[in-house]
Amino acid sequence: MGQGQIGRISARIGAIAESATLAVDSKAKALKAAGRPVIGFGAGEPDFPTPDAIVEAAVAAARDPRNHRYTPAAGLPELREAIAAKTLRDSGYGIVPSQVLVTNGGKQAVYEAFATILDPGDRVLVPTPYWTTYPEAIRLAGGTPVEVFAGADAGYKVSVDQLAAAVTAQTKALLFVSPSNPTGAVYTPEETAAIGAWAAEAGIWVIADEIYEHLVYDDAVSTSIVTATPELAQRAIVLNGVSKTYAMTGWRVGWMIGPEDAVKAATNLQSHLTSNVANVSQRAALAAVSGDLSAATAMRAAFDRRRHTIVDMLRTIDGVTLPTPQGAFYAYPDVAGVLGRSLDGAVPTTSAQLAALILDRVEVAVVPGEAFGPSGYLRLSYALSDEDLVEGVGRIVEFLAR
């Protein structure tokens, strides 16, 4: 076969969908840079600076020649120890440092977790709506994502019966995310324990993403599925990181926790992918997880205030259904009742068309439901200033009322 007959880009990589959330954020920033008064609700990152004590730890680390060299691929030993201590403190889950792999952000942990346990043809149950990266990471690992959908009427939370109905002989794992991106749903301790017990009985792996563990509101409780179901420990991988709790999205430090054989295998993979995480970032993460949660508490109070504002405003729109988000910093309105209406001369029939229309007509960037599963929804991050939030949602409310 000649070179002209071989594809320039591999089919595996060519099939990856662009991150819709990053694409929306990038377009909004480009329009703002061009002088347009765009307000973006797309990015999933806190709008607060990283706490000073963490920054100062990084500055000191940058001056220390020890941090100018490689570290073990699994991470600084003292950081792995601190993550183990933090996990016990926050989740009640006792682990040893050898069960921890420090990764380049939560996304690398997601990819490596699936790459470590999946073989071609394995199926993964993915509660839907889902974060846009999960299905792509599963496919890259050779697996098949199986969507299990729960809509606004169910508070965006799947049931044990739904999961059981989706199982086949090829089912290898369940993805469990609470608090949820994109919906803000939080499973109760009882719901978490029931799903964990079902997964343990089914003999499948559980990949649990707990990155939003400290961002819960009202009487919601963030429960680690391994703590709720200890018998899962040898078939569970827990993903986490510093990005959301400590406003450190740009520092790129995450981790995966799991059985020692799985962590060792993932560490071998990472040794060829990226070696270790940048040492200065690791030192900053060490300061973060070793410290208290006062900065996270202050951020949560601000997010809670904005949560009430965005929910109250969006619910004034005829045709919008919005369960109250109990965690993370996202609102996920069901906009099916808006689709099909004439809006400023256009008639959107999908949430992708509606999001494009909102950006074009009132210069507000939101992410359409197609990025997270079925059409008919929008995701709005309320991790932006109170003033921008009120202005941006106000533009949407006014536009959809025309």
Task: Considering the chains and any ligands shown, give keywords for the structure.
2 domains, Aspartate Aminotransferase, domain 2, alpha/beta, 12 strands, Aspartate Aminotransferase, domain 1, 402 residues
What does this 3D model show about the protein?
The chain has 402 residues and is of the alpha/beta class. It has 2 domains: 153 residues, Aspartate Aminotransferase, domain 1; 239 residues, Type I PLP-dependent aspartate aminotransferase-like (Major domain) (Aspartate Aminotransferase, domain 2). Helix content is 41%, strand content 12%. The strands form 3 sheets. It has a 7-stranded mixed β-sheet with strand order 2-8-7-6-5-3-4, sandwiched between helices. Strands 9-12-11 form a 3-stranded antiparallel β-sheet. A two-stranded parallel ribbon has the order 1-10. The radius of gyration is 21 Å and the shape is globular.
Strand-helix topology:
Layout: H1 11-14, H2 20-33, E1 39-40, H3 52-62, H4 77-91, E2 100-103, H5 105-117, E3 123-128, H6 133-140, E4 144-149, H7 160-166, E5 171-177, H8 189-202, E6 205-209, H9 225-228, E7 236-241, E8 254-257, H10 260-273, H11 279-290, H12 294-314, E9 330-331, H13 351-362, E10 364-365, E11 367-368, E12 378-381, H14 386-400
Parallel strand pairs: 1-10, 3-4, 3-5, 5-6, 6-7
Antiparallel strand pairs: 2-8, 7-8, 9-12, 11-12
Helix pairs in contact: 3-11, 4-11, 5-6, 5-10, 12-14
Give the total of beta strands: 12
Unreliable stretches, pLDDT < 50, 5 or more residues? none
The helix content, as a percent range, equals: 40-55%
Main sheet attributes: strand count, strand direction, barrel closure: 7 strands, mixed
Shape: globular
Strand order of the largest sheet: 2-8-7-6-5-3-4
Q: How far apart lie the N and C ends?
A: 59 Å
The helix tally amounts to 14
- The fourth-level CATH homologous superfamily of the largest domain is Type I PLP-dependent aspartate aminotransferase-like (Major domain)
